[in-house]
Specification:
Layout (H helix, E strand, L loop, with lengths): L2 H20 L1 H8 L4 E6 L1 E3 L14 E3 H14 L1 E3 L1 H10 L6 E8 L2 H14 L4 E4 L1 H6 L4 H11 L2 H11 L3 H11 L3 H14 L3 H14 L4 H8 L3 H9 L3 E4 L12 H19 L5 E3 L10 H9 L4 E7 L11 E5 L6 H8 L2 H7 L7
Parallel strand pairs: 1-5, 1-10, 2-3, 4-5, 5-6, 6-7, 8-9, 9-10
The structure holds zinc ion.
Length: 358
């Protein structure tokens, strides 16, 4: 980490802690224009510790931490679903700043762990569902990859992948990654599998390795993803459900017909199973380069009023409805930083020319 970056992180901490602990955040909140802060997570681990070997740590938040975050915001802001929050913000009738909790993909713990928590607190949330795991009890490649990483020595796994692939780009990416330190190698291999390799070859190789290790796709899906009955139970309890495509594809890498099938197909399955249209959509992966103008247009054409990304930040009425920002929350989420974002504290600094945001 460069000295400049270290200084920025330190200033961020000092500023956010000062606002949070002195209560000045409330003054800032009243002075700044109304805004919608959307928190973004994946899995909720029961109790106070993460579930090892389940999903990567950055995709889990413990029930205890989530409860602390939600309780704090619930007492001071207005908790909303993404769809309602966006409507209220746009109408100009938000009497307080708005905070929405969103969870991506449709993991089973959202129904088994998060729902009881939401009910206990009386808090709303939005859950974005990838439809194929619910329909076919099959999982996208990344889950088989995470499953393998949790069981097989990483270098061994990378070498076996290299031996099985017929894609020269994959061979080159793995050889380059293995030349780096092990943590960097993990990051580079995952990134290469996501963006740089032939996806058919990747899926074939991962399926092969998953089978060699005795993986059971249906069992893994049952462990990870909710079913439609659980989705309906969430809906009945007031949780908003939203679209997240059929297969969790990178929409910017799809041709028009595929992107349309993914977005509209997922929306149609939600409508059929839930009996109503869903107002909000989340781009799979959600980084700036994971979607494009074509996917945004298709999202609007499919009837979604808003689409959320993984760009960090908060939303104002002038934010583009197809590019709503979110703040990722995992178990290392810091309440003072989230609160400083949500009260407009970092935006206030930006207005005077200081950018302390990540
Ligand atoms: Zn997702």
């Amino acid at each position: 980490m460069s000295l400049k970056h270290q200084a920025k992180v330190l200033l961020r901490e000092v500023y956010a802690r000062a606002l949070f602990h002195t209560g000045l955040w409330a003054v800032v909140d009243r002075c700044m224009p109304r805004r919608l802060t959307i928190l973004a997570g994946h899995c909720v681990a029961p109790g106070a510790s993460l579930v090892p070997g389940h999903l990567p740590a950055d995709m889990q938040i413990t029930e205890a931490r989530l409860e602390r975050i939600l309780s704090w915001f619930q007492a001071r802001f207005r908790l909303v679903t993404v769809g309602d929050g966006w409507r209220v913000l746009r109408s100009g009738e938000a009497e307080r700043s708005l905070v929405a909790l969103s969870m991506d993909d449709g993991y089973r713990d959202n129904a088994r762990v998060m729902l009881p928590l939401l009910q206990r607190l009386g808090a709303p949330a939005t859950v974005y569902l990838e439809s194929r795991p619910l329909d076919e009890r099959r999982v996208n490649w990344s889950h088989k990859y995470f499953w393998l990483c949790a069981r097989v020595d990483f270098e061994d796994l990378a070498r076996r992948y290299g031996a099985a692939t017929r894609d020269p780009r994959a061979s080159a990416a793995i050889a380059a990654a293995l030349a780096k330190s092990s943590e960097d190698a993990r990051y580079h291999v995952k990134r290469a599998l996501k963006y740089d390799v032939d996806t058919e070859d990747r899926d074939r190789v991962i399926d092969g390795l998953f089978a060699e290790e005795g993986g059971d796709e249906r069992g893994l899906c049952e462990e990870l993803y909710m079913d439609w009955d659980e989705a309906r139970a969430l809906q009945a309890a007031g949780v908003e459900l939203g679209g997240h495509t059929v297969n969790h594809v990178i929409l910017s890498r799809c041709d028009g017909a595929t992107a349309q099938r993914e977005i509209e197909g997922g929306a149609a399955r939600l409508r059929a199973e839930l009996g109503c249209a869903t107002p909000s959509f989340a781009y799979p992966w959600g980084r700036r380069w994971d979607f494009d103008a074509q996917s945004s247009a298709l999202v609007q054409h499919s009837g979604f009023e808003s689409a959320v990304t993984m760009h960090a930040g908060v939303n104002t009425p002038s934010t583009r409805p197809t590019e709503l920002k979110r703040l990722a929350i995992a178990d290392d989420a810091k309440l003072h930083l989230l609160a400083t974002e949500a009260c407009g504290g970092f935006e206030l600094l930006r207005r005077v020319g200081i950018n302390l945001s990540e």
